[in-house]
Design a protein that fits this description.
The complex is a heterodimer of chains A (about 250) and B (about 375). Chain A is of the alpha+beta class and about 250 residues long. Chain A has ten helices and four strands; from the N terminus they run H-H-H-H-H-H-H-E-H-H-E-E-E-H. Chain A has a four-stranded mixed sheet with strand order 2-1-3-4, with helices on one face. In chain A, helix 4 packs parallel to helix 6. Chain A is elongated. In chain B, helix 7 runs antiparallel to helix 10.
Amino acid sequence: MLGILKAMRTTLGHLPQRKITVQYPEQREQLPERSRGLFRVVIDPATDDPRCRACTLCETNCPVQVIRVNYESKYALPAVNEARLGRERTESQPTPDLTLLAPVVDHYRETGTGMMAVLQHTQEIYGYLPRLALQEISLETGVSLSQVYGVVSFYNQFRLSPVGRFVITVCHGTACHVAGAPLITEAFSGELGIEVGKTTSDRLFTLQTVSCVGACALAPVVRVGDDETHGRMTPDRARALVNDLKHRAEVDR
Amino acid sequence: MSWDIVWAVVRLVVAIVIAYSVVFVAALVNILFERRMLGFLQDRLGPNRTGPQGILQSVADSFKMMGKEDFAPTAADKAMFTLAPVMVMVGAVAIQVVVPYTKGWTDQNLNVGLIYIVAITSFTVLAILLGGWASHNKYSLVGALRSAAQMISYELPMILALLVVAMAAGSLSLNAVVAAQSRYQWFAFTMPFTFLLFFIASIAELNRGPFDLPESESELVAGYGTEYSGMRFGMFFLNEYAGMTIMSMVTVTLFLGGWQGPFANALVIHGVALVPLVWFLAKVYLLVFALVWIRLSVPRLQVDQLMGFAWKVLIPLGLANILATAAVLLWAPHWKLAMAVYSWIFLIAFVGLFDAVLRWRLNRLRRRLVVLT
């Protein structure tokens, strides 16, 4: 009984207290200055530029999907990957622009899935994934740019920076390693004058190593681009290959 | 065709309409009052959008209820099913006949007013039982039986407290009870223990506050109102809130001096004094606020605790109260003073010792029946 009286006194004590109801819409809650619930573009007072860099992480993470980031890009599309597409195809496309992406995106629209396929086709066309191409893919498919970037950055095969005309890939799998792949890589590195993973300054060659290409009978294996595979390499033959490619590049010019 | 008969019929109809209107309006006002008060006591505002300060909220709720589909279960007893919600208001309406609203205004000055009140409060029990049975639903039946059992169990302490009031006032007529509380000798001050007994019993009688197991079951699982929808359920619902006002009116009449208050003779129109009416309504709504307050503060009792409280605590105390009051009335020289002293001592002892005795009994039970507790 005493407990009940105490409870009653507690309840009654709430009667004169301020009511916490916010009578929307006449009254609104005041959000803190740095609150993230507010949608606004913050202008940097020093430069008068928006601080937003269009990373579209907000668009990706919004739980109710109400954000759409519209941006203009300062990036330009590069020339298409001549080594991949061949002279005839590139010449039939006078201006390297986004029309090349149209069939890729259409395929995505038709099937509804396959961001990977879209990205692979795009990388085929340009040799890497330019920022503008990713933006265009994002705008056309409705997937936010940060989500596209998430897929791109996850897989090793997608390159975000341009590579040389000839991508020299040295296999470092078990059989190739045993057969002397490190010597091959050293030979290439010395001949081209670049480290592994880098590109020569004349943008002709990129040297990279992979785990295994699966042609262990031909160990050690070197691939040039996606089309050529050279088996049973030796350091001498590697240097000869480099000269051969340089010659080929001069001829094509 | 005698005009007297026509006139009598018209007066009858008008009287019924007025009586029902008072009950309905009281119920609607109570619903809003409770929702707003619950809000204020919970640090929030109640409904305040419909109409200024939300006064049209109950009207809006009624319209909503009336617009609902009206159906009855196929197996239900059609006549009883329709009759039960109609009957449930009868208790609330009929009590108004004897309640003295103000000086010079009692519909019927029955000289057995208290017995009449006791009889009428049983009507709700009948209506609930009828509703539960007519639904042809075993859960409704059990809910109705529980509710009815609770109400009849708590009628006994109510009646025992009423008897003490009758003894102190010397008459069963409500006007005499009010007159006996003149000069601010309200029975709530001179017999507080009886007031407490009556108040607790009336809360349980209304299925309110900590004793609302039947209606909480309706909200949660089942209960006598399961098969009722729309306005049929609205009748049960309104009756609960109308009962709050009506029972508070009875409590005010019996214990808080009815319409007594200062300036009793200020405004008198046709023999009906208006200022005491204001006092009466103020006291009634004070008690209604107390009902809302208690509903908010006290957790719900389980059904076995409910029945145990009635039969093992309130009824023995009520009987002891009658014995002691009778003894005081017979043998004490200044019976009013003696009654007040005894009642206050009893009240303080009850409030102070209740927790300790309860804990002792509970421990004794636990030692005896380790498994069941």
